[in-house]
């Protein structure tokens, strides 16, 4: 299962040389939150159940620039599930195709009585799409 968000690059997203690298991480976080909503487990519910999903590793591979007023979409999917950790991958695409790939590793955490990792819930594994990144290899 994947989720798609549509965006337009605005002034807040750019610096003198195009899109500031940090914005990609903001967009990945927004797509992750939307993915959880689509899976029926919004972050507000996760937190209310005394769970958390801290990011423990993040990365982004920038393939080509995009600029002010460019329209694009972000696709997000769970692509790997371990015992307590999982990876969400992100495809950034515009009319010309893929321009960036991102990924964030999260750990499923019980917050009470003390924060500690816990097995990822079954709905995380059920949503895993290991084929999501097919065709994104550099040529």
Topology of helices and strands:
Blueprint: E1 2-8, E2 14-15, E3 18-19, H1 21-38, H2 43-48, E4 51-52, E5 55-62, E6 71-81, E7 85-94, E8 97-107, E9 109-110, E10 116-117, H3 122-126
Antiparallel strand pairs: 1-6, 2-3, 4-9, 5-8, 6-7, 7-8, 9-10
What's the CATH architecture?
Answer: Roll
Low-confidence stretches: none
Order of strands across the biggest sheet? 1-6-7-8-5
| Number of helical stretches of at least 4 residues | 3
Protein name: Thioesterase family protein
Pfam family, one: 4HBT_2
InterPro entries: HotDog_dom_sf (IPR029069)
Descriptive report:
The two termini are 26 Å apart. By secondary structure, the chain is α+β, with helices and mostly antiparallel strands. A hairpin with a 3-residue loop joins strand 6 and strand 7. It contains 3 helices and 10 strands; from the N terminus they run βββααβββββββα. It comes from Streptomyces muensis. This is Thioesterase family protein.
Keywords, separated by commas or semicolons:
139 residues, alpha+beta, Thiol Ester Dehydrase, Chain A, 3 helices, 21% helix, HotDog_dom_sf
Summarize the structure.
This protein has 139 residues and is an alpha+beta fold.
């Amino acid at each position: 299962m994947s989720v798609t968000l549509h965006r337009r690059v605005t002034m807040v997203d750019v610096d003198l040389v195009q899109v500031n690298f940090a914005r990609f991480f903001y967009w990945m976080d927004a797509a992750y939150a939307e993915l959880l909503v689509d899976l029926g487990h919004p972050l507000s519910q996760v937190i209310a159940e005394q769970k958390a999903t801290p990011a423990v590793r993040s990365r982004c591979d920038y393939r080509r620039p995009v600029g002010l007023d460019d329209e694009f979409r972000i696709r997000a999917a769970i692509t790997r599930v371990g015992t307590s950790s999982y990876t969400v991958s992100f495809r950034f695409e515009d009319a010309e195709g893929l321009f960036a790939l991102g990924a964030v590793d999260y750990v499923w955490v019980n917050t009470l009585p003390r924060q500690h990792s816990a097995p990822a819930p079954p709905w995380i594994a059920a949503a895993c799409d290991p084929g999501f990144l097919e065709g994104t290899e550099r040529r």
